Amino acid sequence: MDSDYQSQARLFKAFSDETRLRVLEMLRGGEKCACKLLENLDCGQSGLSYHMKVLLESGIVTSRQEGKWTYYRICPEGAFAAVSLVKQLTTVTVDSDRCDCCEP
Amino acid sequence: MDSDYQSQARLFKAFSDETRLRVLEMLRGGEKCACKLLENLDCGQSGLSYHMKVLLESGIVTSRQEGKWTYYRICPEGAFAAVSLVKQLTTVTVDSDRCDCCEP
DNA sequence: TTGGTGTATCAAAAAATTTTTATGTGAGGT
DNA sequence: ACCTCACATAAAAATTTTTTGATACACCAA
To answer: Does A99 contact B at CB distance below 8 Å?
Structure first.
């Protein structure tokens, strides 16, 4: 279906970092503003900004601006897409037989 | 449940590479030997070996040895674990309200 | 045993990601 | 307007991942 390996890889890269996993865990508890996330992370402000950009671009998180604050939350559509993709990537499409391509 | 961010990150890293995604796509069609995978990839033999190691260590692929050949296939348990983990990581646990931690 | 084939491993180089530091920008408040 | 705060962006440095090339190892056949 989706043959763009690069964009699929990008989605998983969003999940492939400890800091971003910590952020997701916090967001599971509901919307949070950047400053609140920062409090509970071991990274600098610009570091968080970088990580949030990765999460936003992957589609699993959305943000809204309010005054000078930015709030982040998990995006249900993006989350669903991620789950679907993992399922798709790991679903075997044949009755799994032994490969005998190299038998003598 | 699982609080080991590092090992979670490792699982997703397995999915975060174009070559490995191509391998998974091939394995969806059933077990394949290394040489068959290699034919359809743009990487060297040692490169494939490296990528397969990453996939094996993530648990989404298993291998079996037969003579001098190695056969790989998707591991249903590992695949299921991956799907579960994505679900867990993206499931919001509260009725999603606005965060007001920074309101004046 | 010897030689060839299929994979794995190691080390170095190359490439990509993450962190850090410095600076920029926009929203409010005074 | 000017200052400050919250966050973004840019560039450089640090770290991690991937690729490459050489070599090692296991298996098989002659």
So the answer is: yes
Domain coordinates in residue numbering, chain B: 5-86
Distances (CA, A) of B88 to A27, A101, B84: 12, 39, 6
Closest C-alpha to A58, from A78, A33, A83, A31: A78
Which ipTM value was assigned to this complex? 0.93
Question: What is the tens place of the pLDDT at every residue in A90-101?
Answer: 999 998 789 988
Give the class (CATH, top level) of B5-86: mainly alpha
Q: Which residues pair with A65 in a beta bridge?
A: A70
Distance from residue A50's CA to nucleotide D13's C1', rounded to whole Å: 16
